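Universal stress protein, pasting as requested.
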Amino acid sequence: MVRPVSVGLNGSPESVAAAHWAAREARLRGVPLRLVYAWEWLPKHLPPTPAEPGFDQHWPERMMGEVAKDIESRHPQLKTTVEQIENLPIPTLLETAEESEVLALGSRGLGTIAGFLAGSVSLAVVARAVRPVVLVRATTGHETAEAVGEVVVGVDLGQPCEPLLEFAFDFAAAHQVPVRALHAWHSPPSYGYLPKEVDVGALGGQERAGLAAALRPWREKHPSIAVYEQLVPERPAHHLIQAASGAALLIVGRRTEPARLGTHLGAVAHAVVHHAPCPVAIVPHP
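Structure tokens follow.
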């Protein structure tokens, strides 16, 4: 089964930027592009009412047609499908993500401040999707910019990291950019009260060895990709956001197991989604 790269469109500059990001990914991956617009019409049992002044029921069709035409002019060999789905956005996008290689969504930038202001729909989708979701912000010239800079991936050695590393190296191979694997390790909570025979420096060495071991099979699979290992003390979100400056993509994971209060992103993913200055991929893992 060939999964498309999909994008949720709503006509905003951010969603158009996501569409162009998705088009480049689909072209490089050699898969189709799927443009999706979800809308909810009035319940069928209600009587028809006059349209609001200025309401244009044909706007979604025109909007999607214009985006598709622009994409096709830039990527003439790319197979593109356009779909309008009468349903609520969140369930529609979750189903679309499940059927896709990756789903791209737009996310609003915070004015001149580097960061995202993710909407409720985007947050709900990335917190529940079973496939990778990428949040893209609108920038000047977004429709022509190619990915440059490193792929930054946050590696938590205490969690399954294979899905994140697979996504990171596949993206890096397609774009021919380096991978920076960043792992934040935590000193023992009793640091300062440990017996003298406990070597905290050795513990850090073990973390470095663990990161190298996790990366080894991916280095072997992609020998042409430059890989940089970075260990940082504590505060993984802070270091990931810093590393994302000038990056082509920032990748973080999200556990698929429901939390006590429902499915959520987790502190690190939530922070980078709101504040990273580059596209952010949230990759689910067990």
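Note for the archive: The chain has two domains: 1-43+56-146, 147-286.
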